Amino acid sequence: MRFNLTPWQRKFQTRFTIKKGGAILIVGLFIAAQLIAQDSLLLNKPTDTVGMIKTSFATTPNPKKLTDQQIKNRVRGVAIANVVGYSAILIGLNSAWYANYPRSNFHFFNDNKEWLQVDKVGHMYSAYIESRASMELWRWTGISREKRIWLGGLSGAVYQTAIEILDGFSAEWGFSWGDFSANILGSGILIAQEFAWDDQRIKLKFSFHRNDYGDPQLNQRADDIFGKSTIERYLKDYNAQTYWASANLKSFFPSSNLPAWLSVAVGYGADGMFGANENVAYNDLGNITFDRRDIKRYRQWYLAPDIDLTKIKTKKKAIRVLLTVLSAFKFPAPSLEFSNGKFKVHALHF
User: DSSP 3-state assignment of 137?
Assistant: First the structure.
């Protein structure tokens, strides 16, 4: 049996297909930032007593200082790339998706209780990663530390909020204060750490595992609302996502003998969700097409060791770039789960 998609389900699929563009932007910015920032890392940043520059990615000798004209040219290039690139993405998203749905006056939509707030943590993570990538682009320009932190740090919130504004003019959903707040929090986490430590001692990370729900009805339901392909499930299946705050131990205990790459991570996820608020679906006539209220929806908390890949020393530029990009994702490791009032051990957590 194939379930008919209700207007809400079509809305859900549209919103998360839109986020595919956002995910591509995140990865693209992150890779581009590292490719160019590695060549002139951390210009105009304070040095320590041995003349080495402290960075969230590496420790490297102070490069040749840029001239005012070089800084101006780089600032202009990065600003144009941001405006043109993101404007093109918004125009494309508007034409491809929002234009196919009825418009309305700007209004608000309260989705704070949906998906046990896993989507809100996802917004926070996306804003953090976008801000982190953008900050490295601005670092490359050679502008002052304070300007680099504010310009780059606020980028993630601005990128995400632009999509929220488009939501606000669509009749089928609206501007979400919950999403907006999560976006601000994600950017704020990056900004606060840069001002406090000149480092991202606590990195936000993501992990995913593809679920087989072990029931033909549930697998069909998952195909309908989350998609069939792995990339669709990666973006949409909240039951399969875990978001982590990974703290580098050596950065907090510099005099210890701990390895520089060792981190400990706290994760959050949820399971049993086959609808935004409940495990029930209706067709356009209001008839129930799916009812699995017998399945419990519950939160999951995790504790696990992690590896800070940015602390692994290498002279190979390509490897540094790869390790930095991969640092946005949680390294697979054993984990301790707490959910439903019980503890559970996982031999390997993705």
Answer: helix
